[in-house]
Design goal:
This protein is mainly beta and 102 residues long. The protein has a domain of 61 residues: Single Sheet (N-terminal domain of TfIIb), CATH 2.20.25. The chain has one helix and five strands; from the N terminus they run αβββββ.
């Protein structure tokens, strides 16, 4: 049987589900490595992907960080030359112009 390397965290979970393999994690209650039952992929606050599920032996919650930050592509500006240019901010040595005087 050929071993296929999967690089992205989402691909790890989907490949495991497709092939029927379970993702293995460490159960703190059993103090042993066990397959994670009912695995669900989640995204943590810091953007990293993780798998959350239950220990098949004791039922404790298991959590495995898959690594790799989720990135959102930022689209480039449509036309940088037509972007509005803001007026320079007044410096501390010059008084701000009074709008009531012409």
């Amino acid at each position: 049987m050929a071993v296929r390397k999967v690089s992205t965290p989402a691909a790890v979970l989907s490949a495991a589900r497709r092939t029927g393999l379970m993702i293995e994690g460490y159960c703190v209650k059993c103090k042993a490595k066990r397959p994670i039952a009912d695995a669900v992929e989640e995204q943590m606050k810091n953007g990293r992907k993780a798998v959350k599920g239950k220990c098949p032996t004791c039922g404790a919650v298991m959590f495995k960080i898959l690594g790799g930050k989720a990135t959102v592509p930022v689209p480039p500006p449509a036309n940088p030359s037509s972007a509005p240019v803001a007026a320079p901010a007044p410096t501390g040595s010059e008084p701000a112009p009074d709008p009531s005087q012409p």
